[in-house]
Amino acid sequence: MDLDLDPATLGFQAEVRSWLAAHVPSELPSLDTADGFEAHRAWERTLFDERLSVVSWPAEYGGRDASLLQWLVFEEEYYAAGAPARVSQNGIFLLAPTLFAHGTPEQCARLLPAMASAEEVWAQAWSEPEAGSDLAAIRASAAKTDGGWLLSGQKTWSSRAAFADRGFGLFRTSGERHRGLTYFMFSLRAPGVTVRPIAQLDGEPGFAEIFLDDVFVPDEDVIGAVDNGWQVAMSTASNERGLSLRSPGRFLATAGRLVRLWQALPDPALRDRVVDAWIGAQAYRLYTFGTVARLAEGGSLGAESSVNKLFWSELDIAMHETALELLGGEGEADGPWLDGYVFSLAGPIYAGTNEIQRNVVAERILGLPR
Amino acid sequence: MKFALSPEQAQFADTLDALLAKSDVARAWAAGDHEPGLAVWRHLADLGVTSVAQDGEPVDLVVAMEAVGFHALPGPAIETLAVLPGHTDGALLATVAIPPHVPYAVDAHVAERVFVLRNGVLFTGTPGQRISSVDPCRALFEVTPATEVGPLDGAFDRGVLACSAQLLGAGRALLARSVDYVKQRTQFGKPIGSFQAVKHQLASVHVGLELARPVVYGAALNAVPVSAAKIAAGDAAYRAARTALQVHGAIGYTVENDLSLWLSKVRALHTAWGTGSVHRARVMATLTRPAGPH
Ligand SMILES: Cc1cc2nc3c(=O)[nH]c(=O)nc-3n(C[C@H](O)[C@H](O)[C@H](O)COP(=O)(O)OP(=O)(O)OC[C@H]3O[C@@H](n4cnc5c(N)ncnc54)[C@H](O)[C@@H]3O)c2cc1C
Question: Angle, to 10 degrees, between the axis of helix B196-220 and the axis of helix B58-70?
Fold first, then answer.
């Protein structure tokens, strides 16, 4: 048992660290504004040109074939450097793993490079007004037509959709519940698509409703087999809850900032909460290294990703609550801690609510009866 | 990097598990009949477990102490395995007090060697008055220093690491017993484990233990302070204990039920070897230590 980085990973870490130190922009406007979105897109392009936007992908799509461990190291460096939020995260972390697992070589070659460079930013269109936790209740449908499909219905809570280029989601092609769903990719600019931005708790349009009215999608934009979308989608779900969407790097960086905030404002009554936040971030980091070892032995992520999701979402809120307490009367004033706090509040809701994750842990890991 | 037990370490864990699963010695120990427990300890000594801190890596110590915790093995395990290796002079068990955080020597009536550690200096100790613990398997003794033995470095930290591992093992046992129980206990015509209020509590316990475990092993590899391990494992195990009692209902609130062996152990170890408050202060001190050449 060891936690030592091999020489190649250490070299990679040093390269990433010095490149980020020289290139990370000072604060960009919020990515949930039109200007901010484009500024973040441009930053992704800068990363891509250095082949740092998707380090774990194959070189042919713009990556570096980095190992999972190296990707984690990249993430630690990225957040430690205070680099911007990833506007392309839903594409690179949720759709791309699905394409790698279920996409055709043609789809990968056509879609992945533009995703990696943020020339095309993707939005996840899974939820519907009547299908939230109960995703299998999806009603939006697809009807067969010459050379493709016509999508109709309503999606909602789609992050980044206000400014993004393309969406991916499940549509009913036959049957009921989990059976008869098909995984589609579609343009948010296609005729028949209406995007209505929704202001989030912070007032910015971080997600949107998507109305589809006979939107044509060619056959080549179906992922996996028709009527097999549920199985395809579930392979993305463990990525979303598990490592890729929320790697330890961001929480380590937040914990580090929280310790510095406490040093500047050393309230003894809050010391224990600061320490617990720091330990929580270390725990998540070490736990993840354990997951890396398990995956290297041929294990899979599966239901364990629910453990991750429960932990990071609650840790994130606890850290930000503690920071606001430390700030005292300044806690309600606009600032990065408040922004982070408001964002953290959504963690127990998106990517499958924490109640659903506890059901998964209890039933699939502990084996409790349904 | 490979943050997982090596095949040898995994096998060591399995061997200990198999051996300790057969031993059912805690109740006799609590009642003052130490012989069955000492037989287990002799077996462990033959396997080299009691000298694991000398012969192996800190990770091996953690593996051993996790098994001790999981099976609620009585006896001064932290003291013998982690704190005093090299000072047992061939004795099977040894014990020590390290004031202020370890004010009493556990099981000084059974251990053949009794010590006191004061300001990093080890003394042989003379046991005094016996004080009973919330854990009937832990007899506490006041000790007065007798003869100076010499300096002993890192003793408290090794004890804290071992205590963390023991708590982790005890917490895992509490969860395992609770999961078994809620699957077979029926109310309202269903296993109580099908109720969401029960499921969610046990899921939270599982998350706590899963995330505490890497902190304990990480501390063995010096990735985090041992104080972080004590906090993480202590809190996760304590939550496991509270939840275990709740999901067992009244049967859990009895001495007859074996759950009490782990409930009382976790309560005792949660404040033994430094409380959460003590260890949080230590962690903050390392985090805010001015960066410098040393
Ligand atoms: C910031 C943010 C970003 C999002 N981004 C996206 C996105 O990009 N794409 C997308 O498709 N969706 C997105 N979502 C939507 C998210 O996936 C859903 O909100 C989530 O699945 C929950 O669905 P719901 O909101 O309809 O709540 P509901 O399912 O109505 O749940 C409401 C409450 O009831 C509880 N509940 C429901 N069922 C059960 C049960 N069986 N047992 C116990 N409790 C239960 C829930 O846990 C929750 O507390 C986003 C949400 C947020 C907040």
Answer: 150
Fold of A7-87: Butyryl-Coa Dehydrogenase, subunit A; domain 1 (1.10.540)
Q: What does the mean pLDDT of chain A come to?
A: 96
Q: Do A259 and B191 touch (CB under 8 A)?
A: no
* A334 shares contact with chain B (CB less than 8 Å): no
Q: Which CATH topology does A237-365 take? A: Butyryl-CoA Dehydrogenase, subunit A; domain 3 (1.20.140)
Q: Residue B59's pLDDT is what?
A: 97
Domain B156-288: give its CATH code.
1.20.140.10
Partners of B204 on chain A (C-beta within 8 Å) are 310, 358
Residue ranges per domain, chain B?
A: 156-288
**Which residue carries 């048992």 as its tokens?**
A1
- Taking CB atoms and an 8 Å limit, are A361 and B277 in contact across chains? no
Contacts of B2 in chain A (CB under 8 A): 1-2, 293, 296
Q: Name which of A203, A234, A213 is nearest A302 in CA terms.
A: A234
Contact A1/B at CB under 8 A: yes
Give the residue on A whose Cα is nearest the Cα of B172: A366
User: Residues of CATH 2.40.110.10 domain(s) within chain A?
Assistant: 122-227
**CATH for A122-227, among 2.40.10.270, 3.40.50.2300, 2.40.110.10, 2.40.37.10?**
2.40.110.10
Chain A residues 264-303 with a CB less than 8 Å from chain B: 271-272, 274-276, 278-280, 282-284, 286-287, 289-290, 292-294, 296-297
DSSP at A24: P
Question: Rounded to the nearest whole angstrom, what is the distance from the C-alpha of residue A242 to the centroid of ligand 1?
Answer: 17
Nearest-CB residue to A366 (from B57, B206, B287): B206
Q: Flag whether the pTM goes above 0.90.
A: yes
ipTM of the complex: 0.97
B73-123 per-position pLDDT tens digit: 999 999 999 999 889 888 999 999 999 999 999 999 999 999 999 999 999
Residue B294 clears pLDDT 50, i.e. is over it: no
Closest CA to A315 of A287, A289, A336: A287
Nearest alpha carbon to residue B255 among B134, B147, B150: B134
Q: How far apart are CA A93 and CA A62, in angstroms?
A: 14
CB atoms within 10 A of CB A199: 12
Instruction: Enumerate the active-site residues of A.
Output: 240
